[in-house]
Design a protein that fits this description.
The chain is α+β, with helices and mostly antiparallel strands. About 25% of the residues lie in helices and about 15% in strands. Helix 1 runs antiparallel to helix 9 and helix 3 runs parallel beside helix 5. The longest helix is centred in the first third of the chain and has 15 residues. The radius of gyration is 20 Å and the shape is globular. The two termini are about 15 Å apart.
């Protein structure tokens, strides 16, 4: 395994054939990615305000939004660059890739002993009104990480009902937000950004510091990432932490904010997960956390601890043990331990993702 030198050093490169790829087929995969740009417009603010995720007034943007750049990406084998396209140092919004970053922070908190048990109730260690009452007080860390919490309420001006009934397969087309009767905590899986933001708030309370500070010190600096990223909150998400105002950051860009970063930094995160949470001999995530992240939720075979999975074989050409961090608009980190592969696709048409994965897989010669 090769670990790239810290930014701004370039990633190590080698000829595709020396890394186990057919050069012509890998070139075809790159051409496919370049020709399948996301339907998300470059003006992301107009897209969000236009009601892509939900109609007004629930679509009110609360955090910063920047226009996106052109498609780009890269493919690594054992940490060595086999292919790249576009500007891989173009820092853009990542949307729900930030959810997987929250999972990484939860792993660090678990390793530090701040979360004694994933099945412990959050209310046992976190003092916040978000976890008051019989329903929200019964929610465990695992439920939040698996998106089965059924948390109920309003956080930072957004009600959990906004994302009830959310169907990712028809995102932007099918209405959601209906008052679905809630199940008991842990008894229903639902992709819900408000509840992910509740997890972020719980992690803020647990660390006792702003999460971007922890992300910088415990992840980005150790893996040699660039300074070109930021993790921003909402104008409504400042909370009191020991008498000091601190911004709680969201797990996506649904209502603005979230993580802005580039493909190379995302590839470094992928390499960290590929190498069981260690970087060049230094353990960053506790042993077993990456494996736990890839264990399917009983209510959803292709979801783990805020990472997407391939347990059902929905991507037939990808190994079943693959991990995916996925954000709206066609932003994906693909980690395939069996082949020591990490790939990052930015602004790829979501409908082209299966085809891109198949083409990269078909390009492998070993």
């Amino acid at each position: 395994m090769t670990f790239p030198a810290p930014h701004p050093a370039p990633f190590p490169e080698a000829a595709p054939e020396s890394l186990g790829f057919d050069p012509a087929k890998l070139g075809e995969a790159v051409a496919f990615a370049e020709s399948r740009e996301t339907p998300f417009p470059r003006d992301l603010l107009a897209h969000l305000e236009g009601g892509h995720f939900e109609p007004a007034p629930d679509n009110e943007v609360l955090g910063p939004v920047q226009s996106r750049g052109a498609p780009n990406g890269l493919i690594l084998r054992d940490g060595v660059l086999a292919a790249r396209w576009g500007d891989t140092r173009q820092a853009d919004m990542t949307f729900s890739v930030a959810k997987s970053c929250l999972s990484v922070l939860a792993g660090i908190a678990r390793g530090d002993g701040l979360i004694p048990d994933l099945d412990a109730r959050v209310s046992e260690s976190v003092d916040d009104p978000a976890f008051d009452g019989p329903r929200n007080g019964a929610i465990t860390w695992r439920m939040l990480l698996q998106q089965t919490s059924e948390w109920e309420g309003t956080l930072f001006g957004k009600a959990d009902q906004i994302d009830r009934g959310r169907d990712l397969a028809s995102e932007g087309k099918k209405p959601k937000g209906w008052p679905r009767p809630l199940a008991e905590p842990g008894k229903h899986w639902e992709y819900n950004d408000v509840r992910v933001n509740v997890l972020s708030l719980a992690l803020l309370r647990t660390f006792g510091r702003a999460l971007p500070e922890i992300w910088l010190e415990r992840v980005m600096e150790p893996i040699g990432a660039s300074p070109d990223w930021r993790w921003e909150g909402y104008r409504t998400s400042t909370v009191d932490l020991g008498g000091e105002p601190v911004v709680s950051v969201p797990g996506g860009g649904h209502w603005g904010g979230g993580i802005v970063t580039h493909a190379e930094d995302q590839a470094r995160l992928g390499l960290l997960m590929l190498n069981d949470g260690t970087w060049n001999g230094r353990r960053i995530l506790p042993e077993g956390w990456v494996a736990a992240s890839g264990e399917p939720v009983s209510l959803h075979p292709d979801y783990g601890l805020l990472w997407w999975l391939n347990s059902s074989g929905r991507f037939p050409k990808a190994d079943r043990a693959s991990l995916f961090a996925v954000g709206a608009g066609g932003n994906t980190i693909w980690i395939e331990p069996a082949t020591r592969l990490v790939a990052v696709f930015r602004w790829l048409h979501p409908e082209a993702l299966p085809g891109m994965i198949a083409r990269v897989s078909d390009a492998r010669t070993n």
